[in-house]
C-alpha cells in the first residue's frame, strides 16, 4: 500500500479544529487530529508545507519509521507545533492500518485490558452552590468521576468557570481576554469547595481539581495538605512544570495524588517526574505528544514507576483524538482515567463517531481503525475563526500563568 495524497482541513464547528486526511492507492484513508488551541494555523502550515511532501509514496504501515523520520529528520525536535503535526500523521496512519486489517486500533495496541474507559466530567459554577448543583447533575448523568471548579470570591473570572449561561470553552474569538488571579483568595476558598462537595455527595464519587499551573511548590504543598481529608482522585497541574524538580517539594508534604503533563510534548518533558515518582498520573495526550507511537512508549515507561495515564481530553482535542484516547485507554495496562469534556452538537455532527458513554465509562466502538469520520461538506460551512486562550494577571497587573 502507498500514500497517494494528504490534505489538511481547518474548520470551526463551535471551535477550531485541524484535521489531516491521508489517502492511499487502495482507497483506504485515515484521519488524524493536529489541533493546537490558539495556534491552529501553525500546525496546519507545518503539515501542508513541510510534512505532506515527504509522505507521498511511503508505505502507511511503517508507523515507527515514519515517526522517526518526522521527529529525527526535522533536526529541530520537540515543541507543540512539531509534535501535534507528527501526531496527526501517526494517528491517520494507525487509522489506515486498522481499516486495512479490518480491526479496531485497540487490537493493534494489545487488545482490551478492561471493559470500559473510566472518564471524568467537568462540573463548575460561579460559586460553591452553583458548582455543587452541577456536580449533582453530572452524578445523575452517570459520571463516577467529576472535576470540580468554582469561582473565587473577589476575582472577576476564574479558570474552568464559564461566563453566566455559557458552555465552558477556554478559547475565545478575538484577541486574548485577560483574567485576574490571586493565590491568597484561591487558597482560602478551594478547601471549602471540597469540604462542601464531600458533605453533600459523600465518598462514593471520585473528585478531581485543576490548579492550572498557578501555584508555587510550597503553595501547592499547602493546598494538597488541606485537601487530604476530602480524598481527591488527583490535584492537577499544581505548578508550571518546566522545572520538574518543583514537584519534589509538593510530594514531600502531601499524600493528595498529583497529575500533570497536558502541555508536555515528549517523554523528555516528564521523564524525571515519572522516574522519581513525583506524580501519580501523566496527562500527555495523543494529539500533543506525537500520536500512538510516542504515547504508548510513555505509558510503558510510566508503568515501571507506578504512574498511570490520565490523558487530557478537553474540547480542543477533537473527536478524532477522543476516539484515539479511547482505543488507547482500553488497551494500555496502566490506564488511570480519561478526561471527557463533551463536544457541542456542531462538532459532533462534523465528526460522526462510533464511541459512546454509559454509566461513567466510555467505549471506543468496534469499527475498524478509529471509528471517526470527517463530514467535509458540513465542515466547509464552519470556516476557521481566529481564537485565543486568555492571559492572566495578578491583582497588581503582573502577567502570570493562565
Ligand atoms: O486549559 O484544553 O484539564 N484541562 C485543561 C484544559 C486546558 C485547555 C487548553 O487548550 O486544563 O481546559
Ligand atoms: Co488541565
Overview of the molecule:
By secondary structure, the protein is α/β, with parallel strands linked by helices. It has two domains: 3-104, 2-Layer Sandwich (Enolase-like, domain 1), CATH 3.30.390; 108-368, TIM Barrel (Alpha-Beta Barrel). Helices cover 35% and strands 18% of the residues. It has helices spanning 40-55, 63-72, 80-101, 128-141, 183-201, 217-227, 246-253, 271-275, 291-303, 319-331, 345-350, 376-379, and strands at 3-11, 17-24, 29-33, 117-125, 145-150, 172-173, 178-181, 206-210, 234-236, 258-260, 281-282, 308-309, 338-339, 356-358, 361-363, 387-388, 391-394, 399-400. Strands 4, 5, 8, 9, 10, 11, 12, 13, 14 and 15 form a ten-stranded mixed β-sheet that branches. Strands 1-2-3 form a three-stranded antiparallel β-sheet. The protein has a three-stranded mixed β-sheet with strand order 7-17-18. Strand 9, helix 7 (246-253) and strand 10 form a beta-alpha-beta unit. It is globular. The termini are far apart. 48% of the residues are buried. The structure holds (2S,3R,4R)-2,3,4,5-tetrahydroxy-N-oxo-pentanamide and cobalt (II) ion. Residues 210, 212, 236-237, 262 line the site of cobalt (II) ion. The site of (2S,3R,4R)-2,3,4,5-tetrahydroxy-N-oxo-pentanamide has 10 residues, from loops.
